[in-house]
Amino acid sequence: MNHERSHALFSRARELIPGGVNSPVRAFKSVGGEPFFAQSAQGAYIVDVDGNRYVDYVGSWGPMIAGHAHPQVLAAVSETMVNGLSFGVPNALEVTMAERIAQIVPSCEMVRMVNSGTEATLSAIRVARGATGRTRIVKFEGCYHGHGDSFLVKAGSGVMTLGLPNSPGVPSALADLTSTIPYNDFDAATKLFDEIGSEIAGLIIEPIVGNANCILPRDGYLKHLRELCTKHGALLIFDEVMTGFRVALGGAQALYGITPDLSTFGKIIGGGMPVGAYGGRRDLMEQIAPSGPIYQAGTLSGNPVAMAAGLATLDLIQVPGFHTELERRTHVLCDGLEAAARDAGIAFTTTRAPGMFGLYFREGPVETFEDAKASDTARFNRFFHAMLGRGVYLAPSAFEAGFVSSVHGDAEIAHTIDAARASFAELG
Ligand SMILES: *Cc1c(COP(=O)(O)O)cnc(C)c1O
């Protein structure tokens, strides 16, 4: 494969954009090499500026659940944009979007639109703190909630370890207010709440972890967290920026039957445009300005073109059987990859949720962040490049989930499994 143009663009980009990219994982740092620059994308495929074509399992990191450049989404965008790109006064599409989210996700009695997942999670913890009058936030090792100060906190070894910032620029005075515990550890959560439950404003979790590869909750784990939060008067916040509208139409909360107090969304509800949202219990959401004193605002929030793209995407996925089919395809892909690895005698396993998967170079099961970290990442990196060379684009990190869309058909999946057979053989 020729990557001349991508290479030239990356050289130019590095002069003026930190690391040459506007979001770190795009730089291919963990897998090595240089990123390709996109020229276009259509359906399950992305094409780079040198004309190379890849089956895309990243899907812009989640939004493209119905495939790239879906004609219905593009039509909604073009019909809407001719009326103006932004108004700074309310528009009808914002109301439609709020009604749609509330209908699909019953725990969201009210919603507020923002412009990214990061904004959604920042706002949700502000509401949690404002509404409870408490300051402490609990998060989980390996969970990502955007780049807000309170979330860029690494866990220490012990359950009770207070946060230490893992990014310069995050004041420890703020990071100290975030406690981090291991995901899927029932006792760690119980112990933390027993000790400091009355200080906890909110617990935020990716109900299915998609930012530490892909880790599913153990049976009863989310229910356990729900009960702890209720008992101690803390708010349960489901960060469904990735899982929302994907693992089930109603997200992970629908899949597992848990009602969080607040939820955050992004990715799919923007259909590829920059959008986020948060919502939840009416009594909490009513405390947000201007109906209440908790301030949160946004010049471009509820942008009509973004709402149109999101609503068109929701139209496409809000059809009976959509998520069952997405789940089936995810299984066909993962079963095929596992079989190919087995035939090659390579220690390998997958984790799956509908439309989402994790790949690990180790034997299963993978149930914790420690398990995920024990994957042979050097091997993953070689596999990543071997697949890329065969026209399959996987997430460029051993710690990111992959995504299947509704247009990853039999042909694309078969090509992927063939490419994996050849790549596994090459790994030896
Ligand atoms: C992507 C993601 C975010 C951040 O969203 P941005 O739009 O990138 O700011 C937050 N939480 C989760 C679970 C995510 O996957």
UniProtKB/TrEMBL annotation:
Homodimer. PANTHER family: GLUTAMATE-1-SEMIALDEHYDE 2,1-AMINOMUTASE (PTHR43713), GLUTAMATE-1-SEMIALDEHYDE 2,1-AMINOMUTASE 1, CHLOROPLASTIC-RELATED (PTHR43713:SF3). The keyword Cytoplasm applies. It comes from Lysobacter soli. It catalyses: (S)-4-amino-5-oxopentanoate = 5-aminolevulinate. It comes from the Bacteria. NCBIfam families: hemL, PRK00062.1. One of its GO terms (biological process) is protoporphyrinogen IX biosynthetic process. Keywords: Cytoplasm, Isomerase, Porphyrin biosynthesis, Pyridoxal phosphate. Its cofactor is pyridoxal 5'-phosphate. InterPro entries: 4pyrrol_synth_GluAld_NH2Trfase (IPR004639), Aminotrans_3 (IPR005814), Aminotrans_3_PPA_site (IPR049704), PyrdxlP-dep_Trfase (IPR015424), PyrdxlP-dep_Trfase_major (IPR015421), PyrdxlP-dep_Trfase_small (IPR015422). Belongs to the class-III pyridoxal-phosphate-dependent aminotransferase family. HemL subfamily. It is found in: Cytoplasm. The lineage of its organism: Bacteria, Pseudomonadati, Pseudomonadota, Gammaproteobacteria, Lysobacterales. The keyword Glycoprotein does not apply. The modification N6-(pyridoxal phosphate)lysine is found at K267. SUPFAM superfamilies: PLP-dependent transferases (SSF53383). The gene is hemL. GO terms for cellular component: cytoplasm. This is Glutamate-1-semialdehyde 2,1-aminomutase. Pfam families: Aminotran_3. GO terms for molecular function: glutamate-1-semialdehyde 2,1-aminomutase activity; pyridoxal phosphate binding; transaminase activity. Pathway: Porphyrin-containing compound metabolism; protoporphyrin-IX biosynthesis; 5-aminolevulinate from L-glutamyl-tRNA(Glu): step 2/2. Its EC number is 5.4.3.8.
